[in-house]
Each structure stands twice: as C-alpha cells, then as structure tokens.
Amino acid sequence: MSKQTSGKKATQKATGKRNPGTRTGGQGGGRIPAPAAAPAPDTGTSPAPELSRRRLLGTVGAAGAAGLVVGGGGGALAVTAAQDAAPTALTSIGSTEVAFREARAHQAGITTPLQATGHLVAFDLAPDADRKTAAALLRRWSRTAEELMAGRTPDADTGVALDAGPSSLTVTFGLGHSFFDRTGLTKRRPVQLDPLPDFSSDALDPKRSNGDLWIQIGADDALVAFHALRALQKDAAGSARLRWQMNGFNRTPGATAQPRTARNLMGQIDGTNNPKPSDKDFDERIFVGRDADQAWMRGGSYAVVRRIRMLLDDWEKRSRHEQEKVIGRRKDNGAPLTGGSETTPMRLDATGSDGLPVIPANAHARIAAPASNQGAALLRRPFSFHDGFREDGAPDAGLLFVCWQADPLRAFTQIQRKLDRGDALSPFLRHEASGLFAVPPAAEPGGYVGRPLLEG
C-alpha cells in the first residue's frame, strides 16, 4: 500500500532515527510520529496541546501536530554519517514524508494535505529539444523528486536543506497543450487539454500563462520547498527554460488550536465544499477513469491554474454584513447564511421576512455550488500569494488557484461560465494568468512520470 492514496487518510512516515511507534490524531485521523524516548527538558510550562494532522479535503489545508516547539534546552541536531540517510527532524512537521509513488497511481500533491508553502513553475522546452530530450528531463526530474521527497539529497546538492527532514514535500508534474506539438505527440494529446475559453473577467498575461511543462511544489518548510525548486531548475538546464514562476503560502500546521479550513486573504474560509474522498463519486470527478481514450492518462488528473489578484482595498471597505452577502456564508465560522455550522448544507430555497433569498441569488457560494452546476465539482487546492505592492499602493496579492478534475470542460469551465455571468465576488477579483495541464499518473517503480506517453 502507498503512504498516501485518495480516499484514505494521509500516512506520514517519520524518517531518520525515531521511535517507530505512531500516534493517531483525533479529528484529522492522520498519523503522527511518536515522540522520542527521552523527554524534552522541563521548561516549567504546560505542554502544548496535542493536535492532529487533519483529514484532507473535508477542508482545504493541513492542520498541525503536537510538540511544534522544542524545549529551550534542546541541543544541536547531530549529523548522520551516512550521506544518503535523511536527518532526524526535531518536530513532526519536519519528519513527515509523502510517497513519490502511490499504489492507486496518482501523483502526490493532489490529495495530499495542503502545505504551508508552495511554488508553481512552468518551463518551455529548449528550441532544439525533442521527444528524447523531454523523456530524459522527466526522468531526471522524477529521480530528483523521489530523492527530495524522501528527505535525501541529490547529487551536486546546494546544501540549502541539509539539516531538514522531508517536511511533507510534494512535487507534481504536468504537461501543457504545447508539449505535444514540441514532442511530435499531437495525436496523443487528450481532448480535455483543449484551451480554456475566454471569460469576461480575464485580464491574462500570456507571459505568465500556459507552458510546455508545469511543476507544483509544496512543503511545510519554506527552505525545503525552495531547495526542491532550485534542484529541479538545475536539472532542466540545457533541456528547458523557465517560462514563469509563482510563489504561495498557507497557514502553517499547528497555527490554530484545532484543525480548521484555511482562510484566504479576504479573511473568508475557503474550501468548505471541496469533494471528499469518502464521496462515492470522488474518483470519478477528480481522476481520469479506465475508459479514457488516452491510456497513458488513466489515473491522472487535470490541473487548472489561475493567478487571481484580489482587490483587497475595495473588499476591506465593505462591512462584514456586505461581505457575507457577497459570499453567502458567515465570515467567522463559514456557516451558510441559512444557519448551522460550516458543514451544514446551504438551504438555497430559504427566504427572509422580505421574501428575498437568505443566500442572495448572486452569492458566490450559491453560484459555485454543485447544485447550481448540474453536479459539477472540482477539488480546490490553492495557495495565497503576496508579491509586494502596486504603484497605487494596493497589495499585489490574492490566490494561486489550483483545482483538480477528471474533465475541465465539465468542471472548471462549466462553473466559471456560471460565475462569469453574475457572481457578486467577481468585481473584487482579477484573473491575471491561466494554465491547463495534464497531470499523468505517478511513475511506476523504476520509471518516470510520463513514460507511458513518451515511450509508448
């Protein structure tokens, strides 16, 4: 069995010299490495509350683990003599490992709990590159990703993360529409990879959109994530050149007293309605089925990537009541305006004393709901971003929106068309970059991501 599979709890493996026992978290159901046998120095304070790593997809983002702070008397981390051994991490954040290959064939980074930091990066193949060049590059990338995700260092390492554990690192690879033209594989390009339609809210920068190849990197430590980014960039030298890069973040595991759905930069709980692996049609909605025309994509998924700038100055001028009407949910706990808790189903037919819908007809949550889109649903897995301030002083900040689905036409495109026609949130958003990528299944043992396509 794999360490992580969709529809099951994420398994997190302690690396290095640790107690082999594990503790199972409460609400999240994830597994957390047991503490070392020797107790931490007594600091005279009560121990931090024990938190579990949350179950994925019921909410967006990862929750924390216990023991995130080492006692004040903690010594330096010993360096292992074996060069290929992962260092012993001081906390469960550093020691968690995600498997590069999964038994259910999916790449990591799709149903993996959302990490604290991330990089999205696209490459174009070099002008003289061909199918053989692309295969060699994906082979190198897959080898490097597997080493890094296990907490090991690749050849010619920069040393940036020498003293860190894997920190839930994931590396996910995708192929853009143009990749198939560049490699002479046009006939094997899936129809699901046809370009997305234009939307009225689009203000897309072509230089920051699309690309032959796409990588998503996520980790719970920023240095570990940067280390992976740098290693993969070096691997691409001579074969592909950087097209664009975007950097994002989320709440760090353990930052809240209890596992909670992440908030976006508007302060709204974001991801309540995500499909859950326990849903009977989860795999059907998110992953390509066995009946797909292109056999090499069976078990894969399609990622839509959008850089969405939020007009935070305008948004923050609205009262909380106005903001809640725009979204259709309460700001404090994410509950629908019709009452209950965050997970209470919205009552779209409920009306107030004035005879108007309690959840306005143009509320974002109403328009984006599966019930309003013939059951269409997608798996949101975004990062927030902040790239400084614009000339007018407004923050250049928002959402690096990443969503996963088996068929973008029936999921993202259908929902976005609906939002495009009257979503109350749209005036506060600007879609500035876009990409669509075919994400093949995980590499088989001894292989690399995309091998069935490139060598089939």
Based on helices, strands and strand pairing, what is the structural class? alpha+beta
Helix content: 10-25%
Order of helices and strands: EEHEHEHEHEHEHHHEEEHEH
- What fraction of the residues are assigned to beta strands by DSSP? 15-25%
Q: Calculate the terminal CA-CA distance, rounded to whole Å.
A: 26 Å
Compute the average pLDDT. Answer: 83
Shape estimate: globular
Which spans of ≥5 residues are poorly predicted at pLDDT below 50?
1-83
Rg is 22 Å
How many strands in all? 11
Q: How would you characterize the largest beta sheet?
A: 9 strands, antiparallel
- How many helix segments? 10
Question: Could you characterize the architecture of this molecule?
Answer:
This protein is of the alpha+beta class. The protein contains 10 helices and 11 strands. The chain has helices at residues 92-95, 131-149, 177-182, 222-235, 282-286, 312-316, 320-327, 364-368, 412-420, 451-454; strands at 22-24, 31-33, 117-125, 170-176, 213-219, 240-249, 301-310, 379-380, 383-389, 395-405, 429-439. The strands form 2 sheets. Strands 3, 4, 5, 6, 7, 8, 9, 10 and 11 form a 9-stranded antiparallel beta sheet that branches. Strands 1-2 form a two-stranded antiparallel sheet. The longest helix has 19 residues, at 131-149. It is globular, with a radius of gyration of 22 Å.
